[in-house]
Amino acid sequence: MKRVEALKFEMNRLKFDCYVCGLDSNIRYLTSNSKTSFEGLTLLVLKDSKPIIYTSKLEEERIKKEVKNVEVEVLKEEEKIEDRISEKVLENKIKKMFFDSLTFNQFKIFHKKLPETKIECKPEILLRIRNGDAVVLDIGAKYMGYNSNLTRTIFVGKPSPSQLRVYRIVYKLQLEAFKKIKSNMEGWEADNLVRKKMEKESLAEYFIHGLGHGIGLDVHELPRLSKKSKDKLKKMSVVTVEPGIYLPGKFGVRIEDTTLVSEDGLKPLTRCEKTIY
């Protein structure tokens, strides 16, 4: 310990370049191009050696202080920007603390009084949502390079008997799909399980897309769960299950979750609450 203290004293006295190293901040290692000796100490310095990493204690402290100043300035600028952004953007910034990215893939408002089937818009576009509308939110999140998908349908005001019927059918069919779709099935078989039930309700023609798709590093991957797909559902693969019914000029309903394929069925990975009407 005395040798270390003596070394520390001599370095401070001679203002030698040094580098703090190791867990003990009192231990410093000199770098020099020539032999140097101190009273009571023997230093071994290789001839013609070149310093690889070195900094004086003062320089080290100056750099730390400068970095701190930069961080403070960045935060100040961010606060100025925050004053000018909308609450929605701020809300998304908070959500992104938990994900690498969070985006609205689709944002659809179905107006029962308009001739169009749906109006598609981006989150930043403001729409007047009216009583009786069906709102379909398709949201995607990314974490550590992997994607997930989630869709929920909500009604503005009290849903009509027709809306309730369709919603309950879609909700029930998704739950049945979780139980009956298993590993080693082909994509068309999985899709057919749901489509056949819709046919019994005379609604299959309004199911205008496949039941789902693989998801992972990309949002859309194999296997495809669709009418003609022969893709195998492998154990431990991840797929979406998203039954939907869309009545032209009236309303649409879709419920989607990201699931894990197993021998016993599909295990939902997204657990956002579904409204039970």
Describe the structure.
The protein is of the alpha+beta class. The chain has 2 domains: 2-82, no CATH class; 99-268, Creatinase/methionine aminopeptidase superfamily (Creatine Amidinohydrolase, Alpha-Beta Complex). It contains 5 helices and 13 strands. It is flat and about 90 Å long. The termini are far apart. The protein has a 4-stranded antiparallel β-sheet, with no helix packed on it.
Largest sheet: 4 strands, antiparallel
CATH superfamily of the largest domain: Creatinase/methionine aminopeptidase superfamily
Please report the number of helical segments. Answer: 5
Provide the β-strand percentage band: 15-25%
Apparent shape: flat
Describe the secondary structure blueprint for this structure.
Layout: H1 2-14, E1 18-20, E2 28-30, H2 57-82, H3 87-95, E3 101-110, E4 119-120, E5 134-143, E6 146-155, H4 161-180, H5 187-200, E7 212-214, E8 221-225, E9 238-241, E10 244-247, E11 251-254, E12 257-262, E13 265-268
Antiparallel strand pairs: 1-2, 3-4, 3-5, 5-6, 7-8, 9-12, 10-11, 12-13
Helix pairs in contact: 4-5
